[in-house]
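Subject: design request, 549 residues
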């Protein structure tokens, strides 16, 4: 039977692997961890949705649906999925420029892309994105989140903020005279409460404490601040309904770039979060299975009023710290949120936006990892240039441009570095045959950016040059690409045209494989492809002695 050119990865969620290992103690621990993470996820889901230009319930629906699917079908034992702060900037821009209906289509398209990435085994490719690029756009997103929260933190009257960086600054600056000091006092108090909450009481998440405190303050003191009730009319006490968005070829064509941005960020953050979890529990996730689960989650969530989701590092870390063993904890986290919305949705009416803003300020500050700026001097100029360029472009333009430029810069710096490590060393005249035999040793990588290192050898093909046999030792060459092969073909052809000989010695497995597949080995001849340098020099002396000089 002929082998298929492509074999898709087996669809095997981690839940199926660990479900047989559960006992009463592990199940109880997972249930408690899931309830705790569900309580933590409630204010975050609401805050992320509002900051993204969506309704509060859309964030909860996303956390419920995507969170359950990611845990049930994912490739990580303890990953928690849902809306995250990293998506705020992208989602808000899509909502402003395309509308909520098109955001749902974008999310669905991104889900299809993520599913395809998993099926094509691209999970390991995401790890090729340099740390400098990830660090740069993460910091840029953190800055944009902080900027977007100034309105609710200060109680400014601005209307809908523009999606672009500079117009946002202008609007916020012009609205500074509308500061609501009651809002400032409440948001500052909630912020300090989150920061000062003792770690020994971490069983009760500090965002929940801030949310309860802020809601109680508004209800008891009748503070003149904006709440979920005053802005959105509250949260429905019901399950989300199914609705398939209207699709058209024209709409899809315009939404491809933002959908790619969602898919790219979702893939990066989910696998980054899974890797963090692996380090905490000494495990190894399946990246392709994780991408497939993320894809399915992002396909299903928008059909029920949700939007884009990915692996959430903070909630996943909390899940691990609570002792979670397997995916059941993430499924319980989603069911906990479902129970909350069915039972306690009316209480959300009094939740102040100032408290949610304080929560997001802390999330953005922790996301930024600003200490990297202080330690940047320890790293190379290339690393610093990539990080800063990605950071600035994320803030000023958008994530897609930033990642594209960052990756191009990283590739160019890598090519430059590898080229600098590639060299051709002239061994000088042979002790026996003199200038009639010249031996050169190559090291590094013979590829499109380094072929200029071989060009000086072409001068040996000149009829006036005394060299009759040129020995090229490839023992220290790690690889040859097709451009490198072409320069070797050219060298051989020019030498042969003038009655001279090229001998290649000690070529490794990769170069030899390319030589054979391209036919170069046959054209050069087996007698000119020698295993050892000493063997090549001995043959060169014989050939040089027989040649006229």
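Subject: RE: design request

Done. Sequence follows.
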């Amino acid at each position: 039977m002929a082998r298929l050119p492509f074999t898709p990865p087996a669809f095997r969620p981690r839940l199926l692997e660990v479900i047989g290992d559960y006992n009463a103690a592990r199940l109880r621990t997972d249930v408690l961890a899931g309830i705790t993470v569900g309580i933590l996820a409630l204010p975050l889901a609401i805050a992320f949705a509002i900051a993204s230009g969506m309704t509060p319930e859309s964030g909860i629906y996303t956390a419920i649906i995507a969170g359950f699917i990611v845990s049930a079908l994912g490739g990580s034992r303890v990953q928690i999925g849902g809306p995250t702060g990293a998506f705020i900037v992208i989602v808000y821009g899509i909502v402003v420029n395309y509308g909520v209906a098109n955001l749902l289509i974008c999310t669905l398209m991104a889900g299809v892309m993520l599913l395809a990435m998993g099926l094509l085994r691209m999970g390991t490719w995401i790890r090729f994105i340099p740390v400098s690029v990830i660090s740069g756009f993460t910091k840029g997103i953190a800055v944009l989140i902080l900027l977007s929260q100034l309105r609710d933190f200060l109680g400014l009257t601005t209307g809908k903020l523009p999606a672009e960086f500079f117009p946002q600054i202008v609007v916020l600056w012009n609205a500074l005279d509308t500061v609501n000091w009651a809002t400032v006092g409440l948001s500052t108090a909630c912020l300090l409460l989150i920061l000062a909450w003792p770690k020994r009481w971490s069983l009760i998440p500090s965002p929940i404490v801030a949310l309860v405190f802020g809601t109680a303050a508004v209800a008891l003191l009748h503070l003149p601040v904006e709440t979920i009730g005053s802005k959105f009319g509250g949260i429905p006490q019901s399950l989300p309904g199914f609705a398939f968005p209207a699709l058209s070829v024209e709409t899809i064509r315009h939404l491809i770039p933002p959908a790619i941005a969602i898919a790219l960020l979702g893939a990066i953050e989910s696998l980054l979060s899974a890797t963090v979890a692996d380090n905490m529990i000494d495990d190894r996730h399946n990246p392709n299975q994780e991408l497939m689960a993320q894809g399915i989650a992002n396909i299903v969530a928008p059909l029920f009023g949700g939007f884009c989701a990915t692996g959430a590092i903070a909630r996943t870390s909390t899940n691990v710290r609570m002792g979670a063993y397997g995916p059941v904890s993430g499924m319980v986290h989603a069911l906990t949120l479902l129970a909350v919305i069915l039972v306690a949705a009316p209480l959300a009416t009094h939740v102040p936006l100032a408290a949610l803003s304080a929560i997001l300020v802390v999330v953005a500050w922790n996301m930024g990892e600003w200490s990297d700026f202080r330690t940047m001097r320890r790293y190379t100029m290339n690393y610093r240039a990539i990080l800063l360029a990605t950071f600035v472009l994320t803030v000023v333009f958008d994530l897609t441009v930033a990642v594209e430029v960052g990756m191009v810069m990283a590739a160019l710096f890598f090519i430059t570095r590898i080229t600098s490590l590639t060299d051709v060393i002239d061994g000088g005249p042979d002790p026996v045959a003199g200038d009639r035999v010249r031996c050169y040793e190559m090291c590094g990588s013979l590829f499109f950016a380094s072929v200029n290192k071989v060009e000086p050898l072409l001068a040996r093909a000149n009829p006036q040059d005394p060299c009759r046999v040129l020995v090229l030792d490839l023992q220290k060459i790690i690889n040859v690409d097709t451009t490198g092969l072409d320069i070797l073909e050219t060298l051989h052809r020019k030498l042969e045209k003038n009655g001279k000989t090229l001998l290649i010695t000690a070529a490794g497995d990769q170069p030899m494989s390319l030589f054979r597949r391209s036919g170069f080995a046959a054209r050069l001849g087996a007698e000119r492809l020698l295993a050892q340098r000493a063997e090549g020099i001995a043959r060169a002396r014989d050939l040089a002695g027989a040649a006229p000089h």
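The chain has three domains: 23-368, 374-419, 423-546.
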